[in-house]
Amino acid sequence: MTTISTAPVAPLLDRLFREADAASPLASPAFEALTTEERIRLMRSKDDYRDLYASLKDFALPVSRETGQLLYILARATRARSIVEFGTSFGLSTLHLAAALRDNGGGRLITSEFEPSKVVIASAHIAAAGLSDLVELREGDALETFRHDLPDTIDLLLLDGAKSLYRDVLALVEDRLRPGAVILADNADYCPDFLEHVSSVANGYYTMSFTDDVELSIRL
Ligand SMILES: C[S@@+](CC[C@H](N)C(=O)[O-])C[C@H]1O[C@@H](n2cnc3c(N)ncnc32)[C@H](O)[C@@H]1O
Known about the structure:
Blueprint: H1 9-22, H2 29-32, H3 36-44, H4 49-55, H5 65-77, E1 82-86, H6 92-103, E2 108-113, H7 116-128, E3 135-139, H8 142-145, E4 154-159, H9 166-173, E5 177-186, H10 192-198, E6 205-209, E7 214-219
Parallel strand pairs: 1-2, 1-4, 2-3, 4-5
Antiparallel strand pairs: 5-7, 6-7
Helix pairs in contact: 5-6, 9-10
S-adenosylmethionine binds at residues 49, 53, 60-63, 87, 89-93, 112-115, 118, 141-143, 160-162, 165.
């Protein structure tokens, strides 16, 4: 028996993914009004990311089902006990990672989200999954919330907040990533400085494009 494949987590994830499928960000008037060029500019911007995510605050924007499964497998395979997640949203990826911690025998997942309404929604989902004891949800910009009280050692890092900040968030936790720690970055192609950094063995990483969406790296 695993936490990920049984109630309450499995049916909750199934419902949340179905709800996310039914609610496209394109249904947001503010987002729909943007041209493709403007969307790409906002995704890459280190200044305007708050406006972008404010316009998307009612949308779950989860990792794919497959990426969620991959996160669970990676956290189990590395016997992770200490996980940091950038970008909580409605908590779908959080549920996968916290379920892995439960099945690994316990641990601590620190996750950060700056949209207050999303913090309320994610907290309710984590509670409904019976995983609240494993998750510390920090409300605020991860560039601030990850500046203090991080574990000495981090086993797994998920980067899924503002794409332009991946390199900056990595810099905040880099010294704590243990050798063998896994970094999964969703849609990293919007963050060339992150890709350049993890592409260099001299910087202490080995990396691959796992899928079109997912960059998978290991701390050497
Ligand atoms: C793609 S969604 C995350 C989806 C989530 N990982 C999942 O799979 O369910 C990105 C989230 O990151 C949040 N976010 C973006 N930049 C952030 C920042 N600098 N600090 C905290 N949260 C941020 C956004 O508000 C949004 O909810």
